[in-house]
Structure formats: C-alpha cells, structure tokens
Here is the input.
Amino acid sequence: MLMRTDPFRELDRLTQQLTGPGTWSRPSAMPMDAYREGDEYVVAFDLPGVTADAIDIDVERNMLKVKAERRPAAKTDDVQMELSERPLGVFSRQIVLADTLDTERIRADYDAGVLTLRIPIAERAKPRKISVVAGAGDGRKEISG
Here is the structure.
C-alpha cells in the first residue's frame, strides 16, 4: 500500500488553528476545478458536509461569487471530541468570468458534496465560418458572415 505524504499538512493544520474558521467577513478559500466541456464552461467546488441551503451563489456582470458555510454537527453533552480536522466556518470563492460566457443561463447542481456550475458559451463567442465573395471585376470583395 502506498502512502502519500504532504510535508505541509502540519503547517496547514497549524495555520487553520491559528486563524480559526472562516467568517462572513473573512472566509476561507474552497478548492475548485474549472474546465470547458463542449459548449459549456464547468466550475466544480468541493463543499463536503455543506447543506444545499447554506450555499449562496451570486453573479454581477462578469463576477461570480460563491459562499458556503459548514456548521458544526449538533453535539450532546456526553460527546468528547478527540480529534477535529474538518474545517468549519465560511468558505468563499470569486471568479471573473469572460465576456464570452452566458451568465444569464448558469445551472447549479449539488451532489455528493460537489457544487457544479455549468455556464454556457455565448453564441457570439462560438466559431463561425465566414465566406469571401469576389467582386464583379472591379477589384472589390464582399465579406459576409
């Protein structure tokens, strides 16, 4: 069996302990992937343990803002925490979207702790063929598209 080691794991844990959980005024970052799939731009955020109603997505012009809050599990008096490494608090990410994306038709799905946003590529940004027509002998050319 292979074991992956991360030399910065303890540093990350110490930083999290010192800075504490994210707050609405100072949120922590959330990991994400972004890629193009066909005629859509896809952005996926890891948000395990976050309920769908604790996710807030806003778009203003070309700025996409995603905020989520992971709350602690309800504990009873007889629970004694031995180890707590899962971060709690507020997580946030801001992304500047290209003008070639259609922000009016963003779809959001949340499944198995992954928030997936699908943003269609705008029609004006899709490649198109432009034909060139030679003029009637006067040297002019007409370009249509």
